[in-house]
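Sequence in, structure out.
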Amino acid sequence: MSALIGPEDLTHEIDIVWVASDIDELDYVRQALDRVRGRRSAPPFHRDGRLVGYAVLGDGAKPSRASGTYLRRVFWVAPHDRDSAPEGLYKFGAPSEAVDPRTIGARVEGRKTVRSQATELSVLPTGQEVALPSA
């Protein structure tokens, strides 16, 4: 999970809406917290890439007193991500904010997996697992 997103940011999530039909084919999605005006509808998207999902907030979520906006998770992919450029920058590894979409749920932190990171696990003699680039 992104260092900027903590469990307290997920407290009022009641659902995750996937707007991309190919979510099971994505090795990873980027996640971010965006300030938006509403709790439920699709948020505006102003990044280079495409929105693939977003969190829906329940009635208990309160807007910021300063801006009247809500913090909500959004999930997206950039044009240079692995789904569009499999031999590109993220052939191995993934962006720091990338998580496996199959591990995401309402109030559930997404996790990095071998699939999302495009790595294989190797076990050191100490028993510690380390990720190695795929061959």
